[in-house]
Amino acid sequence: MSVHNPDIKRVTTHTIQELKNRGEKISALTAYDFSMAGVVDAAGVEIILVGDSASNVMAGHETTLPITLDQMIYHASSVVRAVKRALVVVDLPFGSYQGNSEEALRSAIRIMKESGAHAVKMEGGQEIRESIVRVLSAGVPVMGHLGLTPQSIYKFGTYAVRAKEEAEAQKLIDDAHMLQEVGCFGLVLEKIPATLTKQVSESLTIPTIGIGAGPNADGQILVLHDLLGITKEFKPRFLRRYADVHTIMTEAIAHYVDDVKARDFPNEKEAY
Ligand code: KIV
Questions:
Q1: Cβ–ligand 1 contact at 120 (below 6 Å)
Q2: Which structural domain range is residue 49 located in?
Q3: Are 224 and 31 in contact (CB under 8 A)?
Q4: Structural domain includes residue 7
Q5: Are 125 and 162 in contact (CB under 8 A)?
Q6: What is the reported pLDDT for 137?
Q7: Cα–chain-centroid distance for residue 57?
Q8: CA distance 91 to 89
Q9: Which residue of 105, 142, 174, 208 has the fewest C-beta atoms within 10 A of its own C-beta?
Q10: pLDDT over 60 (residue 3)
């Protein structure tokens, strides 16, 4: 049962900031298509992220790297058509913003114009500062993403917890403050120690949204298919499954197959 605030008619970046200001936790989830986005929105989630994790859960790729800008726009426009309340944030995919700031701006504008989304998310800190500033200068709200940034998985070589060592933790803190200073409206912190999340979240005025980052972030995000138990093999410690939709769907479909084979479906009432 959702306890979302019915007074919030349309979630904006300002709403997200107000939630942090008054100490109310922010809920965020991914969605990639019209039907699921409608369900997520109706359940009261404040931020729907059209994540480049679509590359994994929708397209079956091993990493987020292969998904293209055109594919992200397709997913984002499907989500936007369903959403009445949540803030829709879209990942700029790998290769669409790291080259130079002009390319970043072009990519962000395409997402905003062609999908109708409300904001974009970009992975990285100081290395992509110029691109973030350029996108922000066009009036496009930007959410940052630090810690285990999946677009850099081949640099990390592992999906293990990031920023356990002092130097990486300090860089993350510096990057977080830089993202706030240039004007990002929020920041995803992925797979970092809970104590570091606490330190960063308490020292920033903008909200942090954690995934595998402990309870101290200002909000939490999960991949929808993981939360629902549609993906079975992915079992990180941080994931709480709220349903076993894989089993529910498999049993329902197997039942349908049985009914077709037994000539039980369709029956007289289901025919014209
Ligand atoms: O792509 C994605 O789903 C994400 C979240 C896991 C934060 O970036």
A1: no
A2: 13-241
A3: yes
A4: no
A5: no
A6: 98
A7: 12
A8: 7
A9: 174
A10: no
Whether 151 is in the pocket of ligand 1, judged by its Cβ within 6 Å, is no
Which residue's CA is the nearest one to ligand 1's atom 5?
51
Model confidence band, residue 8 (pLDDT cutoffs 50, 70, 90): confident
CA of 61 to the centre of ligand 1 (A): 14
Same-domain status, 78 and 195 = yes
Kindly state whether residues 165 and 76 are assigned to the same domain. yes
145 located within any domain:
yes
Closest ligand 1 atom number to CA of residue 28: 7
Q: Is the CB of 53 under 6 A from ligand 1?
A: yes
Is the pTM higher than 0.90? The answer reads yes
Residue 199 has pLDDT above 80, yes or no: yes
Cα 220 to ligand 1 centre (Å): 11
Mean pLDDT, rounded, of the chain: 97
Q: How far is the CA of 117 from the centre of ligand 1 (A)?
A: 16
Which positions are annotated as active-site residues? 190
Give strand ranges (E) for the chain.
26-30, 47-50, 87-91, 119-123, 142-147, 186-190, 208-211, 219-222
CB neighbours of residue 137 within 10 Å:
12
The reply to whether ligand 1 has any atom less than 6 angstroms from the CB of 221 is yes
Q: Which residue has the tokens 């709220």?
A: 242
Q: Is the minimum distance from the CB of 41 to ligand 1 under 6 angstroms?
A: no
